[in-house]
Amino acid sequence: MDSSRLLFSVFFLLITTSDCSDTDELQCNDMDNEIFHRLEGEAFYFLPYVLMDGNIPDENITWHKNNSEEISNNEDRMVHYHGGALFFLNLQIEDSGFYTALHRTSSGECFNYHLNLVVFDKSHANTEVLFRTVSGGSKNRKIPCPDNVKETCSVFRGKLSWEKDSNIFPDEHGAQLWIMDVDKSQEGIYTCVCTWKHHEKEYKTSGSRKLEVEDQVVVKPPKILSPANKEQFADEGLEIKLNCSVLCGKNVGNDCQATWRIDGSPISQIDGYNLTTKREEPADGTTVTAILTIKRVSAKDFLAEFTCTGHGGFEPASATLTLKPKESKTPLIIGALSVLFFCVFAAVLIKYFAIDLALLFRPYFTLALNNKDGRVFDAYVVYQTQNLDNPSEDTFSLFVTKNLPSVLEEKCGYRLFIQGRDDIPGEDRLELVEDRMNQSRRLMVILTPGSGSESSPTSPQNSVIGGFDWQVGLHHALVQREMNVILIQLGDMGPEGYAHLPPGLQHLIHKSAPIKWPEDSRGASAYNSRFWKRVRYLMPVTPAKKDCQSLII
Fold it and tell me: In what residue span(s) does the Ig-like domain sit (predicted)?
């Protein structure tokens, strides 16, 4: 639509010029054609440039549009003329056209004025109505208000203002806008707006200029970014890529270059190599990377010298690189596996022989770990023998009367208080149990198949004594937490397991499983058997009576 109007205007220009030449060629002088691009909705005041002021009587001049439509001088019209000037108070798309004026002076001279007006809609966002672009390399830039806008403000005593991208400069009202310390962020379209009045009504006329800021060129000596090392590992027979990255100044264009050479020769003269280049423009400068692709690394590549060279307006910079064959990872893997195997093996040995190690080093800490609690007994042995069959009773009797004292007392020097063996005749049983329990450092509970079962009615004394020992011992272990408990199991507890035992004893069993007496084992009675090592580990470090003898594991 806009281009067709322009062609239409040119067409009428040719017709008008032809008509004038036929009728008034000897009388009228044709002035230059003035072309204006304006936005719809604004006001436009046009006075031919040869006229010094707008005080020409209306009867001395007539205006026509497209050489046919006569313009009125009625100032109530949106489009009219007065004093030789054209007024467009509210530009519309249809106001586009070719305007001519015939001016006859009082002295008999005749002049033809021409205006080619193109009105654009607002969707063009000033891109089609820009005046001359402001550019250059100076640090501070001056943006002048377009002459038509400035003259309109001067004639009608209007007020100038400036804006950029709809952002108003509040303190700028002059005919020139200065942009100080120009950088790329200040680039854009600056608009000068004149607000003026005509017959007490306010109108606006604007003109825009584009500020272009050229990229600042900063020249620096080239800097090699990669290769950073003098050697690089490679696998023989495989492909490898070598990067030669060069950092130059800002906006230096093709002056920044990077390339590879092999033993001083260009890559293009050697087969089997491919060279590509890529360019980047980060904030800190121009980076050019030459990528050398070696399709199959051969033995000769390990003997060659690769040179990365960078050019950038100064003395070239260079860095050399040599390839090294990768070492085999097999020794490293074997070493790592050996260390791992050793750590696992050591952990297993420590876990399995933890008790043995603890017993081995006990003699060396005997002096530092002397017991000073004043207790007389190392362990108080409590048990029940009710409801035992003959084999179980024989096993229990042999363990308590022979095996237990022979190892812990005779060989280790521990002092045990064994229920039934160390009772003092005639002493109150209840006081005796309480007193001996307070003087003991461990509570050793012997679990038999009859433990925890209801006592036989035929042995009320044993029932009372045994039950009281258990109650006092569990009270010291669970409530007062004064004694550690050693659980030893003789024989099979039956299908019910430990379910028939008292709750307190079940709690202790849940925390630490009982040590089972392997009576059928040949070495069960031996001092250094697995069973006795576990028992000795749970006993106090230093016996209450005397030191252990023959601590050989």
Answer: 222-322
- Which residues, in sequence order, are CB contacts of 425 under 8 Å at separation 6+? none
With H, G, I as helix, E, B as strand and everything else as coil, classify residue 221. coil
Q: Is the dihedral of CA 144, 149, 154, 158 positive or negative?
A: negative
Report d(CA 451, CA 467) in Å as an integer.
10
Whole-angstrom distance, CA of residue 54 vs CA of residue 134: 31
What the block records as the tokens of 142 is 């001056």
Determine the Cα–Cα distance for residues 389 and 396; give it in Å rounded to an integer. Answer: 10
DSSP state of 408: I
DSSP per-residue codes, 21-65? HHHSTTTEEEEEEEEEEEETTS-EEE--TT-SSS---GGGEEEEE
Q: Report the C-alpha gap between 194 and 205 in whole angstroms.
A: 5
Domain-wise residue ranges, the chain: 2-124, 141-211, 223-325, 366-538
Homologous superfamily, domain 366-538? Toll/interleukin-1 receptor homology (TIR) domain (3.40.50.10140)
The pTM is what? 0.42
Q: Measured between alpha carbons, how far is residue 36 from residues 9, 115, 207, 300, 466 in Å?
A: 12, 8, 11, 73, 123
Tell me if the bond preceding 331 is cis, omega within 30° of 0.
no
Query: Are the C-beta atoms of residues 491 and 449 closer than 8 Å to each other?
Result: yes
**For 72-91, how does the pLDDT look when each residue is reduced to its tens digit (9 = 90+)?**
999 889 999 998 899 999 99
User: Does 141-211 match 366-538 in CATH topology?
Assistant: no
Q: Give the span between the Cα atoms of 466 and 419, in whole angstroms.
A: 8
For 25-79, how does the pLDDT look when each residue is reduced to its tens digit (9 = 90+)? Answer: 446 888 889 999 888 999 999 999 888 777 888 888 999 999 888 999 998 899 9
**Domain 141-211 belongs to what architecture?**
Sandwich (2.60)
CA distance 334 to 352: 26
In 3D, which of 138, 135, 146 has the Cα closest to residue 176? 146
Q: What average pLDDT score do residues 233-248 get?
A: 90
- In the three-class reduction of DSSP (H, G, I as helix; E, B as strand; rest coil), residue 494 is classed as coil
Q: Are 376 and 435 in contact (CB under 8 A)?
A: no
Q: Provide the token pair at 359.
A: 């017993």
